[in-house]
Each structure stands twice: as structure tokens, then as C-alpha cells.
Amino acid sequence: MMALTRLSRLAAPAGFAAAALALAALVLFTVVAGSGTISQAARRAVFYAPTLCALGSIVALLVALIALFVRQSGEFGPFGLAAFLTALVGTVLGAGGYWTYVFVLPELSKQAPSVADQSSGSVLAGFFLSFLIMGLGWLLFAVASMRTGVFPAWAVGLLMIGSLVTIVPLPSRTLVLSLAVACLGYLACRPVPNRHSAPEPTGWLGHRLKGGRPV
């Protein structure tokens, strides 16, 4: 139990790390790529800066996802477990997509720059499918989280928006999702209210009762 509690506390640092790295990836990619082609940017050593930030961000999202699941595991049912597994698989696939930006795209840009710039065929389909599963998985996880009532509705709503944005092909498609996860991670540090405890008896003026007498 203590190990699970410690694991759930990783939601906050992992969420903030994911958000910070996603924001850094967006800024660095804008500076490095500019108005040029992706193959031109990938041939430069500085291209590793935004791609490593993007990969680190999605790895941090994986850690935060597991921590958020542990935080709500007592409230989740079969639907929550299925949503978590879908989000987990989708995030792993998304990490694989960012992995290619770090280790495949730079060499591909040197050997076949036209292929790197086209982004078509099975490569495009693979990226779209990976982030589609990731976005839908996180959306289902948000729905399951809404049903538990552990987190406020506004935070889960932001997670839903971030999940949908993840599907859109943007330079830093996980930024909104990472910000939402950071909020949930912060809120996860709060103690869980005991819903099954009986309300404390009070008198007619709202005074607490002890042994049948107001105190």
C-alpha cells in the first residue's frame, strides 16, 4: 500500500516535467525548423534539442498516466481499467513515433531528404494511427476519471480537450494534454476524502455532539 501511495505521488513531478518538456519542444522546434523543410532542420545537430524534449515529454506522460491510474485504482471499474490500458498502449505508440524523430529522421534526411519531407504512405498512416489511439485512450481515461469524482470536473475537462488535440498533427500536439496532466498531478497530492464515513452528528444549532450532548 505504501509503495502504491508513493507511486501515485509521481503524478505531480511527472506531469510538470511533461508540460515543461512539451513547451520547450514547441519553442525549440519553431526556432530550429523555422520556415525551412524538415530534412534541412534534421541534418543539423541542434535538431536533437526539440526532438529529445518531445520524447522526454511523452515518457513523462507515461509515468504520470500510471501514477494517475494508481491514484484512482480503488474507484475504477472494468471500464477504467480498459481506458487505462488503451491510453497506455497509445502513449507507447506515440513515444515510438517521437523516437523516430530522434534516431531515424536525421539519418533519413541525409540519405533520402525527399522521403523525409513527403510524410506520406505508411509512415503518415502509422503516425496518425499511433496518435489516434493515444488521443482516444486518454479521452476514455478522462471519462473514467470523471466518473470516479476524484478530480474536479474542470481539470478532467481540460484532459478531454488535450486528448482531442493530441490527434491533430501539430508541432507539439501533446502540450495541452501535458498541461492537463500537470494539473491532475498537482490535485493528486490532496488526500482522498472518505466517502463511506458516517457524517459527524450535530445538534440543532450545528454544534458537534459528544455522548449525546452538544460541545
Detailed description of the structure:
The protein has 215 residues and is mainly alpha-helical. The chain has one domain (8-188). It has 10 helices and 2 strands. A two-stranded antiparallel sheet has the order 1-2. Helix 5 (78-103) packs antiparallel against helix 8 (121-148). The longest helix is centred in the middle third of the chain and has 28 residues, at 121-148. It starts with a helix and ends with a strand.
Strand content: under 5%
Counting DSSP E segments of at least 2 residues, the number of strands comes to 2
- State the domain count: 1
Order of helices and strands: HHHHHHHHHHEE
> What is the alpha-carbon Rg in Å?
22 Å
Largest sheet: 2 strands, antiparallel
Structural class: mainly alpha
N→C terminal distance = 36 Å
Mean pLDDT: 83
Query: What spatial form do the alpha-carbon principal axes imply?
Result: elongated
Keywords: Membrane, Transmembrane, Transmembrane helix
Transmembrane segments: 49-70, 82-101, 121-143, 150-168
Structure summarized in a few sentences:
The protein has 215 residues and is mostly helical.
Descriptive terms for the model:
215 residues, mainly alpha, membrane, elongated, transmembrane, two-stranded antiparallel ribbon, transmembrane helix
Structural topology:
Elements: H1 2-8, H2 11-33, H3 38-42, H4 48-72, H5 78-103, H6 105-111, H7 113-118, H8 121-148, H9 153-167, H10 175-187, E1 209-210, E2 213-214
Antiparallel strand pairs: 1-2
